[in-house]
């Protein structure tokens, strides 16, 4: 009998999901959130489940693990794992599979903050492998070593917040591997990580998968990650699996209209080679899969024009206080000697990883953060020379939009009030003029004028970002500082908002200071790019030059870490690194070194003396 | 950690010093104890002698300095009424109050936390809803009324437990305690219930709110995804996280239990500090009032310190910030 079962198990796929339908109970009604999903995961295979928010990809994982609350959810169909139907298993049996035969990792913030990482590991090992406390500790050290956490034994008694994001995710992977699972379900494990760290984690997962002969179900919204890691892909949309197949086939000849629309909206690094101006994303209908023609780029920059914004030797430092009497113990050199120009109609992108000072640069220009020194010149007027009134006038010229449109719109104000508020505060006209203008702007950003009386919660994330844009535009600014403004949006929404930004630039001649960590979007929208590292600009130049001929080691590292949305161009793997992102915290007496820049081609400046250690460049591209 | 403790102790001393001034001056501007203590028919010489004996002829600052000097010797003055050291008089009554407060707090924890857990975990069931409604009664019913009702029902009508006094006591660590004897325990029951009713409701609501906040967290989902039993998820992963606010509140409330057990002690004729202070205020026995207030201040400061230490023990993130930026 056992022989028969194992034989059957050996023959079939490791996991077979058959006609999975999951419903949630809302207000007494059962609403299906997954409809008739079927797919297989073979042995040692990596299957990506990809989709935008609300597509049901996480619910699929939670249904397989049966982690949905019993009282408000219903799972129908079959989930065959090693030949047994998980849905038919009693709770106690299912618990023996969770964390043991099927392990799961989430975003790296999922460790209990009040327990040490060792506690989590020992707990899991004792639960499933019946180890003694001492045995479990020993094994935990071995596991942390396996995921390449430096000095593993001494870190066992640290808490999650004492690790960096990347190291936390390594801990979670170590815990997942504790019981040698047959299947690893990874639910957006790299979404909150910087690209170089993401690349490390993806490689680590792949390597461990090979060693342990484990299958992986990888849930993500990032087509680049899908192309990088998966053998097969399931595309989800509104609770349906709209397409399933080998990853290369999904990318080369997508069948479902939605897959085509999704792929069209994905920015691909390198696709802009040879183009000078930003290019809009092609718009593909999610229903028909047919593409509208992409309007040709219109040059918006006059190379002879005077810059609208000049930043000279900008320095912003933050004091770190500590000790008994709150004395100065160090400084964060957030922005260090940054200079650049921005011309009318131009988009300059500031790119870099967390802590590189790109957002602080934007905030310093807006005077939301007081810079320590340096000049910010808007249309020939130096900002620091202005009195409060002058500063107010100047602020009209420069507007900012933020990453989180939920947090930047007051939930109790109608969007009409929100949009007209700056107009009225600057006494630019009467209330009815403000309303007319707001209505006009709503149309311009692709919404309807009759939406003025609605509240922010009635809008989706993408719509709210459009509203933020309308609010910024009501003062007729010449420059918009966009701080990670499209980062939190779903792929297709992101493409729409980027298209809108480009359209507004063409029509109104706006300049953008586009702050982003997303290299692929940056490549799409910018005229020029400045790469920041530890508060300094290490490379600045025309976008095409920087992307096709990066000079600084950090720029090269950053570009090579971006996952490419093309399974045919997977990165060659050669060894894992566990470099961390360095911190710009320095002792009080630190004197920043004098930097020189070399001009490699017209306008393309690179910091000389690349002695700045950025860590070895592990990955190269053919 | 040690330096952090030192800092906290230093702050605590500042608080106590400031309070000593406020208390001393505050008490000295109300009324004149001489009028109450000395018979109206006493001669002028007797009056002056009494004033001098009590040290009331000196200027206020000199009185304060005397008070401070004595304070360091552990002498908080001599009660005008009892003619004995004020501190001694209070400390004699302290165990009764502490016993009552501890009993009430224990009830609040032992009853409040499990009920709160239940109400949080099964929020949509009717017993949970009943508990939440009931807790509103616990908040809003006045203590004195509940006390009277308890006496009427359980002492007068049913005759199950006595209504007043401490009953038999037994000695432990040199102090008399009621809870060590059967009779004392039966005397303790009603006042403790009376005093704890509010706290039970508070702890329960707090626990419930904590559970509701912690349950949707990623780390709970993750704990379940690792195949841990539901029992372990709740008693290990949920409980420690909700203990952080609960411990803070329990600590602060313990101080207020001792300080404000006045009503309960009066109704149940419980011979504790609360009853003493009311009596002392009536006759303006300044040393007792000052000593009592100083003792309460000291206690609040100590409790706060203990809560902070517990807090750091429960929440590792607090430990880090206490050490300064890493």
Automatic annotation (TrEMBL), chain A:
Subcellular location, record wording:
Cell inner membrane
Q: Which reaction does it catalyse?
A: glutathione(out) + ATP + H2O = glutathione(in) + ADP + phosphate + H(+)
Q: Name one Pfam family in it.
A: ABC_tran
- Identify the keywords attached in UniProt to this record, alphabetized: ATP-binding, Cell inner membrane, Cell membrane, Hydrolase, Membrane, Nucleotide-binding, Repeat, Translocase, Transport
Primary site of residence: membrane
Question: Does Translocase show up as a keyword for this record?
Answer: yes
- The enzyme class is translocase
What range(s) does the ABC transporter domain occupy?
Answer: 15-263, 309-559
Q: Which GO terms describe its molecular function?
A: ATP binding
Q: Which InterPro entries match?
A: AAA+_ATPase (IPR003593), ABC_transp_ATP-bind (IPR050319), ABC_transporter-like_ATP-bd (IPR003439), ABC_transporter-like_CS (IPR017871), Oligopep_ABC_C (IPR013563), P-loop_NTPase (IPR027417)
The protein's topology relative to the membrane is: Peripheral membrane protein
Keyword Cell membrane attributed: yes
Q: How does it assemble?
A: The complex is composed of two ATP-binding proteins (GsiA), two transmembrane proteins (GsiC and GsiD) and a solute-binding protein (GsiB).
Task: Give a short account of what the protein does.
Answer: Part of the ABC transporter complex GsiABCD involved in glutathione import. Responsible for energy coupling to the transport system.
Task: Write out the similarity annotation.
Answer: Belongs to the ABC transporter superfamily. Glutathione importer (TC 3.A.1.5.11) family.
Query: PANTHER family from the entry?
Result: GLUTATHIONE IMPORT ATP-BINDING PROTEIN GSIA (PTHR43776:SF15), TRANSPORT ATP-BINDING PROTEIN (PTHR43776)
- Name of the protein this chain belongs to: Glutathione import ATP-binding protein GsiA
Organism (species): Aquamicrobium zhengzhouense
Automatic annotation (TrEMBL), chain B:
The record ties this protein, via InterPro entries, to: BPD_transp_1_N, MetI-like, MetI-like_sf
Domain ABC transmembrane type-1: residue ranges? 94-307
Q: Which SUPFAM superfamilies match?
A: MetI-like
Q: Where are the transmembrane segments?
A: 12-31, 100-118, 130-154, 184-202, 242-269, 289-314
Among the Pfam families in the record, one is: BPD_transp_1
Subcellular locations according to the entry: Cell membrane
Entry membrane topology: Multi-pass membrane protein
* Taxonomy, superkingdom: Bacteria
The alphabetized UniProt keywords are: Cell membrane, Membrane, Transmembrane, Transmembrane helix, Transport
Matches recorded under Gene3D superfamilies: MetI-like (1.10.3720.10)
The family annotation for this protein states: Belongs to the binding-protein-dependent transport system permease family.
Q: What is this protein called?
A: ABC transporter permease
Native source organism of the sequence: Aquamicrobium zhengzhouense
């Amino acid at each position: 009998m056992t022989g028969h079962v194992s034989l059957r198990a050996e023959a079939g796929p490791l996991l077979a999901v058959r006609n999975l339908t999951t419903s949630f109970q809302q207000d007494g009604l059962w609403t299906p959130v997954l409809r008739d999903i079927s797919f297989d995961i073979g042995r040692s295979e990596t299957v990506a489940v990809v989709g935008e928010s609300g597509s049901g990809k996480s619910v699929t994982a939670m249904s397989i693990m049966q982690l949905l609350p019993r009282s408000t959810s219903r799972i129908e169909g079959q989930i065959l794992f090693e030949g047994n139907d998980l849905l038919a298993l009693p709770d106690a049996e299912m618990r023996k599979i969770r964390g043991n035969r099927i392990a799961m990792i989430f975003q790296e913030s999922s460790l209990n903050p009040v327990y040490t990482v060792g506690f989590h590991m020992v707990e899991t090992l004792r639960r499933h492998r019946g180890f003694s406390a001492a045995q479990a500790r020993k094994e935990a050290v071995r596991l942390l070593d396996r995921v390449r956490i430096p000095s593993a034994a001494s870190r066992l008694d640290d808490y999650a917040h004492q690790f960096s994001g990347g190291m936390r995710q390594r801990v979670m992977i170590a815990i997942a591997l504790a019981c040698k699972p047959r299947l690893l379900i990874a639910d957006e494990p790299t979404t909150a990580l910087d690209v170089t760290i993401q690349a490390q984690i993806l490689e680590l997962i792949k390597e461990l998968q090979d060693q342990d002969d484990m299958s992986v179900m990888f849930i993500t919204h990032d087509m680049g990650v899908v192309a990088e890691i998966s053998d097969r892909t399931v595309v989800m949309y509104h609770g349906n699996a709209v397409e399933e197949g080998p990853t290369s086939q999904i990318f080369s000849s997508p069948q479902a209209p939605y897959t085509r629309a999704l792929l069209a909206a994905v920015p691909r690094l390198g696709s802009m080679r040879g183009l000078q101006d930003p290019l809009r994303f092609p718009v593909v209908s999610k229903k028909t899969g047919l593409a509208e023609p992409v309007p040709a780029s219109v040059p918006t920059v006059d190379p002879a024009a005077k810059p609208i914004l000049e930043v000279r030797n900008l320095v912003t430092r933050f004091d770190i206080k500590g000790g008994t009497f709150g004395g100065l113990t160090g400084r964060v050199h957030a922005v260090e000697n940054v200079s650049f120009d921005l011309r009318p109609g131009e988009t300059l992108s500031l790119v870099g990883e967390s802590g590189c000072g790109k957002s602080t640069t934007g905030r310093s220009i807006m005077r939301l953060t007081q810079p320590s020194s340096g000049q910010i010149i808007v249309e020939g007027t130096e900002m620091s020379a202005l009195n409060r009134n002058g500063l107010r006038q100047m602020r009209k010229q420069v507007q900012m939009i933020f990453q989180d449109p939920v947090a930047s719109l007051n939930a109790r104000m109608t969007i009409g009030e929100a949009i007209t508020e700056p107009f009225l505060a600057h006494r630019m006209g009467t209330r009815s003029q403000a309303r007319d203008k707001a209505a006009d702007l709503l149309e311009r950003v692709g919404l309807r004028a009759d939406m003025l009386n609605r509240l922010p919660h009635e809008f989706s994330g993408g719509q709210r970002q459009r509203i933020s844009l309308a609010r910024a535009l009501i003062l007729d600014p010449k420059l918009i500082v966009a701080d990670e403004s499209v980062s939190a949006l779903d792929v297709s929404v992101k493409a729409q908002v980027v298209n809108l930004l480009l359209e507004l630039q063409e029509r109104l001649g706006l300049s953008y200071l586009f702050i982003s960590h997303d290299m692929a979007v940056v490549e799409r929208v910018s005229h020029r790019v400045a790469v920041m590292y530890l508060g300094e600009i290490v490379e600045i130049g025309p976008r095409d030059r920087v992307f096709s001929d990066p000079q600084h080691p950090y720029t090269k590292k950053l570009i090579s870490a971006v996952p490419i949305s093309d399974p045919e161009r997977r990165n060659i793997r050669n060894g894992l690194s566990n470099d961390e992102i360095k911190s710009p915290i320095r002792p009080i007496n630190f004197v920043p070194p004098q930097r020189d820049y070399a001009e490699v081609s017209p306008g393309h400046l690179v910091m000389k003396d690349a002695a700045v250690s950025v860590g070895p460049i592990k990955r190269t591209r053919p | 950690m040690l330096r952090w403790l030192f800092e906290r102790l230093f702050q605590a001393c500042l608080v106590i010093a400031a309070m000593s001034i406020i208390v001393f001056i505050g008490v000295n501007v109300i009324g004149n104890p001489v009028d109450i203590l000395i018979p109206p028919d006493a001669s002028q010489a007797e009056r002056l002698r009494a004033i001098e004996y009590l040290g009331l002829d000196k200027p206020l600052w000199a009185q304060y300095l005397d008070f401070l000097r004595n304070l360091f010797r552990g002498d908080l003055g001599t009660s005008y009424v009892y003619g004995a050291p004020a501190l001694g008089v209070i400390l004699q009554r302290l165990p009764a109050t502490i016993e009552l407060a501890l009993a009430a707090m224990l009830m609040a924890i032992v009853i409040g936390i499990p009920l709160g857990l239940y109400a949080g975990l099964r929020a949509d069931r009717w017993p949970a809803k009943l508990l939440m409604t009931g807790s509103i009664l616990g908040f809003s019913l006045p203590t004195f009324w509940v006390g009277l009702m308890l006496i009427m029902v359980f002492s007068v009508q049913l005759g199950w437990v006595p209504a007043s006094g401490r009953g038999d006591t037994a000695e432990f660590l040199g102090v008399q305690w009621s809870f060590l004897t059967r009779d004392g325990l039966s005397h303790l029951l009603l006042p403790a219930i009376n005093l704890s009713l509010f706290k039970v409701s508070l702890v329960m609501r707090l626990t419930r709110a904590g559970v509701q906040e912690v349950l949707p967290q990623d780390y709970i989902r993750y704990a379940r995804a690792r195949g841990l039993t539901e029992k372990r998820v709740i008693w290990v992963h949920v409980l420690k996280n909700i203990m952080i606010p609960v411990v803070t509140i329990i600590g602060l409330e313990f101080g207020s239990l001792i300080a404000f057990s006045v009503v309960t002690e009066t109704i149940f004729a419980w011979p504790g500090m609360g009853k003493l202070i009311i009596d002392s205020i009536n006759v303006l026995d300044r040393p007792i009032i000052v000593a009592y207030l100083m003792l309460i201040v000291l206690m609040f400061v100590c409790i706060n310190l203990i809560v902070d230490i517990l807090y750091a023990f429960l929440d590792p993130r607090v430990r880090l910030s206490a050490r300064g930026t890493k």
